[in-house]
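Lines hold sequence, tokenised fold; shown next:
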Amino acid sequence: MNGQPQRTLSPQRLYTINRTNNLNLLGTEMKTFGQTRRDPQKGKKEFSTHRGFTIIELMVVIAVVAIITSFALPSYRTLIEKRSVTSGAQQISAFFSAAKMEAIKRNEMIAIHTDLGDACMGFFAYDPDAATPRTNCDCTLTDPDAGNACSVDEFGDGEMRLHVLDANSLNKPVKVTDIDILGRADDLVIFDPIRGMLVFDGAVAAIPLELKMLSKKDAYGLNVQLTATGRVTVCSDTTTAVYPVPGFDDC
């Protein structure tokens, strides 16, 4: 036309042009899609590409978190109560076992004195041949060299060391509600150094010592029992406590 020959584009050239136009069109659409709200600092005609949370969205998230927490909190409190009595029973059992091993190691009698009023217990070397055998020790004393302290010469070096377990020493808070000591008039638990068995001056009971403790809300309870053979056992108190403690036999 007009005496000028028409230019014919090659297929390669046509493909390049079409691809470029498509990319430009896509970029324009994405930019338009990103303009979601006005930026006050740029005027009414300018838009910002940043997005945020609305108050309704935040309120929905807070409500969901509150509902989940309301379901999880009672289970967490139950776990804490179970753990409190379990930890306390383990520590008291370890204390009894330590007194028994001390008697065997020193080859002399070791006596445990419990004081429910002061919520503590301690052990000391017991000499039955003394003119006036000790019948207790003061588990509130902090000086191991005091005359009535719950202490022993643990390593045979002449230095006395305290052996006391009180409420402040327990990892978890528990209530010691009762201590039953049978078979001795002086309410002492005395370990024989030869076999680690208990020494009695009265009728031998099947369970000479039973220490009862409860969680703070009395939901769970465990009893630490010391048998006549010196064996320490722990059982679940299903009489005083509301629920049994899983993993322990009933008393």
